[in-house]
Amino acid sequence: MAIIEAKNVSKTFGPKVALDKVSLDIPEGKIFGLLGPNGAGKSTLIRIINRITIATEGQILFQGHPITEADVARIGYLPEERGLYRKMKVGDQCMYLAQLKGMSARDAAYELKQWFVRFEIQDWWNKKVEELSKGMAQKVQFITTVVHRPSLMILDEPFSGFDPVNVDLIRKEILRLKEEGATVILSTHNMESVEELCENIALINKGKLVVCGGTQEIRRRHGEDNVEIEYTDKELSRRTLVVPRVELNATLTGLIGQGVTLHSFKEVIPRMNDIFIKLVTEE
What we know:
Elements: E1 2-13, E2 16-27, E3 31-35, H1 42-49, E4 57-62, E5 65-66, H2 69-72, E6 75-78, H3 90-100, H4 105-118, H5 134-146, E7 152-156, H6 164-179, E8 183-187, H7 191-197, E9 200-205, E10 208-214, H8 215-221, E11 226-232, E12 238-244, H9 248-257, E13 261-267, H10 272-282
Parallel strand pairs: 3-8, 3-9, 6-7, 7-8
Antiparallel strand pairs: 1-2, 1-4, 4-5, 9-10, 11-12, 11-13
Helix pairs in contact: 3-4, 3-5
């Protein structure tokens, strides 16, 4: 079942077409990668889902019905443009944002304390936001995005500005939340994270949907039908050789005839980064 369905969604700003009849389904309980170069229309689609702006044409369905403000309350949105009130204390800021999402003060305090312990930031509660580094502030904003246990989380470049340790921490939390039943829309330029986390993706470029589907299926679809052979030659050097699949049998026969030791051969599947560059360049 799809938690979000975009049906022929278009958005224009005067003469500029930001989205052009985009239709896609975001499966419930999955991590969905929303990809595209800067200015492609990703953020516009995200804002339409969150009802920050309204589509010029088309509609967004949430669990089968036109999305409402009540549905938006079940969404956690981490925008790329981070923003916290710098003069507020961290704890007060988090309590305020949690209650905006409908949590009682008691529930908000309990859940926030759990998150602060999980992230080992208990001593930040009474600090002012302006005392935090960029990475520290982003941790706080991630917590405020997910503390109300949203059905759908929309994370726009969630790893931006983090060191590798905190990237790993956030990645593990995203996976944990997904395992607990949340749906995640991950908008990022980090193709390594897309391959590791996303089961489905959509690529938008120049306002149009270029490709949409399962990550592994898309990787195979855009491969060149090559095979990588691993072997050890007569000088005992480990080597790899990439050949078209149609040449595989002849190549293997030739290698065996040379007296090499074959170890394996496997399909060469392109990386998401290569597919991204290829499709955007073609467009």
